[in-house]
Amino acid sequence: MKEKEIKNLLNKMTLEEKIGQMVQVAGDIFLTDDINVETGPLKNLELSNEQLYQVGSILNVMGAERVKKVQDEYLSKSRLKIPLLFMDDVINGYKIAFPIPIAQGCSWSIDVIKKIAEISAMESNIAGANVNFSPMVDLSRDARWGRVMESIGGEDPYLGQVYGKAIVETYQGKDLKKLGNVASTVKHIAAYGAAEAGRDYNTVDMSEREFRQYYLPAYKAAIEANAEMVMTSFNILNGIPATINRWLIQDLLRKELGFKGIVISDYGAIEETIIHGISEDEKHAALNAINAGVDIDMMSRIYANYLKDLCLESKEIEEKVNESVLRILNLKNKLGLFENPYGNSNIEKEKTYIMSKENLEETKKLVEETFVLLKNKDNILPLNANKKIALIGPYADNTAITGSWSMFSDRKKNTTILEALKRKVKDENLLYSKGTEILRIEEINRILKADGLQTLENKNEKEEEKQMLQQAKNIAKESDIILLALGEHYRQSGEACSRSNIGLPKNQIKLIEELHKLGKPIIMILFNGRPLELSSVERKLDGILEVWFPGTMGAEAIIDVLLGNTNPSGKLTMSFPQNVGQCPIYYNHYNTGRPHNYEGRYLSRYQDIPTKSFYPFGYGLSYSKFEYRNLKLDKTKIKEDEKIKVSFEVENKSDYEGYEIVQMYIKDLFGSVVRPVKELKDFKKIYFKKHEIKKIDFEITLDMLKFWNEKLNFQAEKGEFKVYVGGNSTEVLEEKFVLE
Ligand code: GLC
């Protein structure tokens, strides 16, 4: 449709029809089949049938046939035949479940991130998605928060920027009508990851400078990449819920960043402003939201039931409604829905593209780059396939290795580690025993009950646990090496999954301790959605491979890495704490006036644990051994219009070829406000042949030295700086330079 025709359509719409476009409901309201997904407190919105058939968009209905069925039924009752928008939580894949976003971020590969986004967008677009609710770029520093699993950039603003931009550009391409392109939604604006105490939906309060320095950059990069939509977050930001925060939406997003796309609330968040205690009632909530500039009310009845009265009382409000509806109609038009209401959904293509062999093989390679080798004592890895392996643990023969947002993917179809290992080693060299459950019944039932699911019966747990442990010890005694597949339950991370204890479950720790007594080397394969507390078990383990929730091709990828067919290369994007008492912990912290750089009393430290993280940001081992040397700067003094060339050598001192992620950090030694001890400014993922030496170059630009100063100006200040290069954020070479 031409722009003029869109405006004409708007003029034909009744007030009720306009308001309907600003309402989004979950799919189950239209469909009663059993594959609806629940992503928030399901409730009856008590919308009239007329209101229902005027809504503008629908949440999480996928599958070409289902989309067509809903669209046909909806349009049959729509006076002006304005098609529904289908918006979906394709967070890390549709039918192919990719590694959870925090794992993807550990690849430090834009190519990996883009390829995953490309396959996810194509699969979901063929299945009827017009809009994906992704990327989630919330800066995440607190491992107690369950949604760190969704954070593509982890604790680093720079990673969040480069990854968020890459996903938006890959999702949207140049033309939203084109097959495989979906509109992206950057979320959750804003600073949702800073929820106090890591408790989901909790208070966020910070200085504007802190917000601009750390939390805003990733949202800004995604908006500058032309994200079509943003989603507001559940939390308050400095006293006002983000969803009705006029400074955030009007002043920052619309005016300062020039965002012209659609603002959608998170699930029920407009109605929740009453519970926050800032909207006095539902009508006040509607007024607050429309004045803040929310275009779509996701899963609440507020707009549907109260916007009309507000419009009749105020021409200004009706004008705002017209602006919102125009934005929504324009997106539908960009997607070509007026010409083809089914979008690119295609039953035939679903059969050939989704879960295709080619994509699954490509996916395995992508997954391998997300793993982080945390420990490899005496080079116990890669595994010698001729040794007798005891595969033990609740994840050894378990298909549930996809994250909690992989609700469209059929977990039962996944290969398990046991099945994948059987294909690679002789039967006589492979022994298996479960060893223990993921969680004890009391713990899993607490989760299932909160999720409204059937709880498990506790038949004779103690006896069963004893028997499973004994069986595990029996096979371990016969083996040369123990592979221990452990970790969190996938329902322990994701939305509303905050935890006050981030250690391994007690029954799993007991299994480690008992097996350790046998004196056999133990390699742990760790499944988790957040940094965990490993300090109490690490010394009992010889190898640790962090695999997060690796998705559909996870098992095959794990075996290929363990056997050395692929050299692990991932690096952490979130620091692992010594224990939960350190949370939030992050590498780009301030120095304090009493840094714990030496032993003493009056220092910023804990009495009972080391002050540094257990595993630092940017850390990850390889089967290769990389040595960094000869850091040189082509000049040590620059003016504002100059750059510095940083060069150094890296040698692969091993017989293993593989990737190394070289990282460059900068520290501003003095500023008008305190500056972090270091900040990631660039990185490269470089392939090394065995014993290969490479000269690596980076460039230091003025932009890298800028920060939000006391007066909230974004600028660099003259003075001394340090540049660091290395394979993680702590083992680095350093040089000084001056900005004159
Ligand atoms: C949820 C999540 C959000 C998701 C939305 C739709 O509450 O916070 O990330 O996209 O609702 O399911």
What is the SS-derived class? alpha/beta
Biggest sheet: strand arrangement: 9-6-5-4-3-2-1-10
Spans of at least 5 consecutive residues whose pLDDT stays below 50 are: none
Proportion of strand residues: 15-25%
Helicity, as a percent range: 25-40%
Helix count from the secondary structure assignment:
20
Return the average pLDDT rounded to an integer: 96
Shape: globular
Ligands present: alpha-D-glucopyranose
Number-wise, the strands total 26
List the helices and strands and how they pair.
Elements: H1 3-12, H2 15-21, E1 23-26, H3 49-52, E2 57-59, H4 64-76, E3 85-88, H5 101-105, H6 110-126, E4 131-132, H7 157-172, E5 183-189, H8 208-224, E6 229-232, E7 236-237, E8 240-241, H9 246-256, E9 262-264, H10 269-275, H11 282-292, E10 297-298, H12 302-313, H13 315-334, H14 347-353, H15 357-368, E11 372-376, E12 389-392, H16 417-422, E13 430-433, H17 441-450, H18 461-478, E14 481-487, H19 506-516, E15 522-527, E16 543-546, H20 554-562, E17 626-633, E18 637-638, E19 644-652, E20 658-668, E21 679-688, E22 693-700, E23 707-708, E24 714-715, E25 719-726, E26 732-739
Parallel strand pairs: 1-2, 1-10, 2-3, 3-4, 4-5, 5-6, 6-9, 12-13, 12-14, 14-15, 15-16, 18-26
Antiparallel strand pairs: 7-8, 11-16, 17-19, 19-22, 20-21, 20-25, 23-24, 25-26
Helix pairs in contact: 1-13, 2-12, 2-13, 6-7, 7-8, 10-11, 11-12, 12-13, 15-20, 18-19
Bound molecules: alpha-D-glucopyranose.
Alpha-D-glucopyranose binds at residues 39-40, 59, 89, 133, 187, 266-267, 495.
